[in-house]
Amino acid sequence: MTVNVLPPATAEKESAPDPHQLAPIEPAKRKKHRSPLAYFLVAPAALAELLVHIVPMVLGIWIAFITLNQLSIANWVNAPFVGLQNFVTALDPSSPIAGQLYGALGRTLLFTVIVVAIAWSMGMLGAVLLTSSFKGRGLLRTLFLVPYALPSYVGTIAWAFMFNQRDGAINRFLVDDLGILQDRPFWLLGGNSFWAIVIVTAWQFWPFAFLMLLAALQNIPGDVYEAASLDGASLWKQFTNITLPMVKPANAVLLLIMSLWIFNQFNVPYVLFGPASPEQATLISPLIYQQSFNNWNFGLGGAMSVMLLVVLLIASAFYIRMVLPKGQHDND
Amino acid sequence: MNTKKFRWVAALAVGVVAAGSMTACSASGGSGDSDTITYWASNQAPTVERDAEILQESIDRYTEETGVKVDLEVIPWSDLYNRILTAVSSGEGPDVLNIGNTWAVSLQSSGAFVPWEGEALDAIGGQDRFVQSSFATGGAEGQAPTSVPIYGLSYSLYYNTAMFEAAGITTPPATWDEFVEDAKKLTIDTDGDGQIDQWGVTMAGSSIANNAHQAFVRGLQNGGSLYDDDGNPDFGNDGVVTGVKEWVDLMAVDKVVSPSDAESVNGSDMAATFAEGQAAMFFDQAPGDNLKSRNFTDYAAAPVPMETADATGLEGTQSHVAGINVSVFENSGNKEAAIDFVKHLTSDDEQKYLNESFGSLPVVTTAYDDPAFQTDVIKLKQTILADHAQPMPLYPSEGQMETLVGTAIKDLLATAAQGGSVSEADVKSALEDANSQMTTGQ
C-alpha cells in the first residue's frame, strides 16, 4: 500500500529544486529588498523580546553569581559577587540542598516522561477518533478543549477541592460511592501527591496534544487510508504505517515543546500545595521558588535556574539534531 | 520550510520556552501624586472585602482631616511577603504597609523602610505611648525599629464550653498533661457509627507560620530555644525537639486531632472546624470575628497550657508577642504624609476603632480605658502579653527560620496523618535538616 503513496512524494522530491543550489541566490535577492522600513517594522518585536525574555534571563544568570538575600535585596545592584559558590552549594553532595536538587531533578524527569506519555496518548486517541466525521463531533471537540481553555489556576483550584481528603469529590467517589477503598487516602500529602500533580498536569496538557495532532491528521489525504483499506490493512496497521509516519514532523515538535513545558511545571504544584510542596512531589521549578522566595536565597535559586536552563538547552539541542526531520520537506 | 530553517525555528522556539525557567517576575506599587498615598494592609478580618470596609472608614476620616487620599489594597497573607520582597527589590512599593511583626527584623535588614527615631518617632507621639512588649518587635535590639505596632495579638486556648460541660470538665487545662487528658475525653464518636466525629483539638497542620509559632512556644516551655545565645540557629536542641514532638504527638500518638487537619492551610480553617462542632479546642490569636460571623458564641478563652501550672520566665511562655506592625517605605514619594498616616492609624481613637473591629489588642496604652477592651478575653490576652509572651527571635534570618521549621513540622504531621509513626529521632532529624539548610543558605 505504501507503493501508492510514495510515487507522488518521490516525484515531488525529484522535481523540487536542490536547496543547495538556492543558497547563493537567496541572499542576493534579499539584499535588493532591504530597506530601513524592514528594520523599523521588526524593531518593536525585537525590543519586546529583549525586555520580556533576554534582559530577565541575563539578570537571572547574573543573580546566580551573587549573594542576594534580605540584606542585599534593596541594593541588589551592589550585591556581593561570589563566583561559583552558589553552584557549589547547589551541587555539593554533602549538603541537604543538593540532596533536594538531585531528588527533584530525578522526580521531574520521571514526572515529565509520565505526563507526556499520558497527554500524548490521550491527545492521539482523541484526534484519531475525531478525524472521521460523525454527529456531535463539533461538541466533542469543544468539550475536549475545555481544560486547555480554562485558566490554569481555575482548573487546578477545582482539582485541589476534589483532592481534599475529608470532603473532596475523589474520595467521596472512591470511598463512599464505589467502596473501592476503606480509608480516605490523602492526595495532597505523601506519596500520592506526586500522582496528584501527574493527573492534573496531564489533564491540562492533553488538549494541546489533541489540537496539534488533530491538525496534523487532517493533512493526511483520505485516499491514502482508502487505498490501505483496499489492500486489507487493519486499523492498527493503518495507524502504525500511515498515521504515525505522516504526523512524525508535527509529533517531534509537539513532544519537544510539551516536554519543556512540563519539565518547567510550576503552577499546578504551587496551587495544589502552596509555597512548599511535599517532598515526594517537589519538582525543579517549585524547588527554585522555595529557595528563592521562601528561604530568601535568590543567588542559590538563580544558580539552580541557570543549571536547569543549561540542561534543557543541551537536551533540546540533542533532540533537535537526533529526532527532528533531516533532508526532507515538512508538510507545510 | 526547508530542514535548515525548520531546525532554526525549532531551536529558537526551544530557547524561548526553556528561558521560561529563567525569567524573573516583577511588580510595582508606588505612590502617585502628592495628595495620594498608597497603603498595603494585611488581612485581619474573615475576608479581604471586610478588611477594606473597616479600613475605609478610618481612611475616610483621615482624608477628611488632611485632604490626603489613600489608595488602599488589602493583600492576603499568602501574597503579602512576596509582594513586599518584590517592592523592596524594585524600589517601587507602597508608601505605607502592614507587616507580620515576626518579619520585622528580616525586613529591617533590607534597609527599605524608614527608621522610627528622631522626628519620625516624635511625629507619632514617641515610644512611651506604645505597649512596650509590642513596640520591641519593631526591629533588632539596639537598632531604631523600622516598624511600629498597629494591632496586638497573642495566642490563647479557645474551648467549646458546652462540650467541656458534657465531658464533665469544669476548668480549662493549665498544664500540657491536663490538656492532652482533656483532649482525649473530648475525642468521641457522638453518633455511634464507629467514626470519631468530635475531636479534642483542631490545628492547621499545613500552616507554616502556625507550626513555627508552636515550635517556638513549646520549645521554650521545654527549656529549648530556636537560636543559641550567639544568635545562631539551633533547631535540633532537646527542648525544641521535645516541644515539637508534643505538638506532633497530638495527632500521631494521642490521636486527639483529626488526620484531615494535616491538610489544613489556614488558621481560619480551625475556626470553621471549631464552630461546626467538629473539635473542642484550638490555639489561635484572634478568631473572635471569624466565630462571630458563623454565629458561634458557645466558647471561652483560657491561657495556653504550660508544662507546669506555675511556670514563669521563658518556661512560662504561652505565646510569642504576636501582632501586626506598620512601616513606611524609604522610597516613598510622600514620606511626610505616610508618617502622618501612621500617626493616624496609631492614634488613640483609631486604635480603639480598628482593634475593636478586628478583635485584636490596642498597641497604645491609653486605648485600654475604653469599655470595649474590658472584656474577659481582652484582659486575658493583656495578661498573656505582659507576663507570658516572648518576641519571636529578633534576627534577620527569622523569616527563613519560620519557613524551614514550619515546613519540617508540616511534613512530620503529614507522616502522622498517614498512619506513620514519628519518633523523637525523626523529629530531631527533621529539625536538624532544616537547621542545616538554614546555615548552608546563609
Look at the helices and sheets of chain B and give the structural class. Answer: alpha/beta
Shape of chain A: globular
Uncertain parts of chain B: 16-32
Largest sheet of chain B: 5 strands, mixed
Secondary-structure element sequence of chain A?
Answer: HHHHHHHHHHHHHHHH
Please state the CA-atom Rg of chain A, rounded to the nearest Å.
25 Å
Question: How much helicity do the residues of chain A have?
Answer: over 70%
**Count of helical regions of chain A:** 16
Order of helices and strands of chain B: HEHEHEHHHEEHHEHHHEHEEEHHHEHH
Question: Could you give the count of β-strands of chain B?
Answer: 11
Summarize the main sheet of chain A.
Answer: none
Q: Multimeric state of these chains?
A: heterodimer
Strand content of chain A: under 5%
Return the structural class of chain A: mainly alpha
Note the overall shape of chain B.
globular
Number of strands of chain A: 0
Order of strands, main sheet of chain B, comes to 2-1-3-10-4
Overall average residue pLDDT of chain B = 89
Poorly predicted runs of chain A are: 1-25, 328-332
End-to-end C-alpha gap of chain B: 52 Å
What would you say this structure looks like, in words?
The complex is a heterodimer of chains A (332) and B (442). By secondary structure, chain A is mainly α. Chain A has 16 helices and no strands. Mean pLDDT of chain A is 84; it is low at 1-25 and 328-332. With 442 residues, chain B is an alpha/beta fold. Chain B is built from 17 helices and eleven strands. In chain B, α2 (48-66) links the parallel β1 (36-42) and β2 (69-75). Chain B is 45% helix and 12% strand. Chain B has helices at 3-19, 48-66, 77-90, 104-108, 118-123, 132-135, 161-166, 176-186, 208-221, 238-252, 267-275, 288-293, 335-345, 348-358, 376-387, 398-417, 424-441; strands at 36-42, 69-75, 96-100, 148-153, 156-160, 199-201, 279-284, 299-302, 319-320, 322-328, 389-390. In chain B, the strands form three sheets. A five-stranded mixed beta sheet of chain B has the order 2-1-3-10-4. The chains are: A mainly alpha (332), B alpha/beta (442).
